[in-house]
Amino acid sequence: MKNIGFLSFGHWTPSPHSQTRSASDALLQSIDLAVAAEELGADGAYFRVHHFARQLASPFPLLAAVGARTSRIEIGTGVIDMRYENPLYMAEDAGAADLISGGRLQLGISRGSPEQVVDGFRYFGYQPEGDDHASMARDHTRTFLDVIGGKGFAQPNPRPMFPNPPGLLPIEPHSPGLRDRIWWGAGSRATAEWTAEQGLNLMSSTLLTEDTGVPFHELQAQQIQMFRDAWKAAGHEREPRVSVSRSIFPIVSDEDRQYFFRETASQDQVGHLDGGLARFGKTYAGEPDQLVHDLAEDSAIAAADTLLLTVPNQLGVDYNAHVIESVLTHLAPGLGWR
Fold it and tell me: Domain Luciferase-like spans what residues (predicted)?
């Protein structure tokens, strides 16, 4: 059994070929797709965060709106770039969104990926020591994790406007259990081990910032196993969760064939990212019987409990709901995911 959700980057462009032509379209269609996915029986609605881009950028208003419009589906991010975040303000927003959704928030965070502008986090007021912005992201994360647990740390005013409870004051609103639903987007095997040490769930994407020559899914399966081994060594009491994301398009209609027939020959790719090699996973597109066979051989999907389907959001809500439904009905039963 798998948790199956979608992951949207929320792209928008004024092009007449796009059904998502404005930031308003991207946000409102994201809510509508989450509602549709829940009605179809999917398990999660996740959104990517990019700054200075025609994509989704401010996750918490969107997450709160999705939480208010749905009742069962998990809502989350994949991922929030912690280089840009004020961790205390983020803790307030996350607590509020989680309470609105009734404890369904699954918050993916990370160091982030290359952005549209050079050192964009500096425009947000954050200056790393030297060029070590990765350490700054982890510092922000540690602070965020410290305060979302609900422990008091702030000295109360002796003459407050409103009465205070005794002791140091915590961030409010606090949502119990949220700490166990934080994920780290790990782009390498070493980062996956760090993720386990912090007691965070593992969110692995369709690329890894390293290449050993083995197929992407095998490298990712190694990453997942290293995460689980490190989790066990750290002695955490709960069972961790692991997600992978994939582009999967069953071809069951002429429209599917028009959009994705050329992807039926997709293969892994190796490229350069952040000055080093990176391996990118392939797109799965084809007739359902062939996809069931191909996906059964994906060792990383087998090792994960959660599968996030990357969706081409500019094709519109109806078409993306069709893609999700096709995976749930044509693939999931044959693979034992349902």
Answer: 9-257
Residue type, position 2, single letter: K
3 state DSSP class of 306: strand
Alpha carbon distance 109, 103 (integer Å): 17
Q: What share of the chain is helix, strand, coil (3-state, %, to 5)?
A: 45, 20, 40
CATH class of 3-335: alpha beta
Which residues share a beta bridge with 273? 276
Distances (CA, A) of 268 to 22, 217, 297, 325: 32, 9, 14, 26
Asked if residues 316 and 20 have their Cβ atoms less than 8 Å apart, the reply is yes
Q: Are 158 and 82 in contact (CB under 8 A)?
A: no
Q: What is the pLDDT of residues 248-261, one digit of tens each?
A: 999 999 999 999 99
Cα four-point dihedral sign 50, 33, 266, 184: positive
Paired tokens of 338: 């349902």
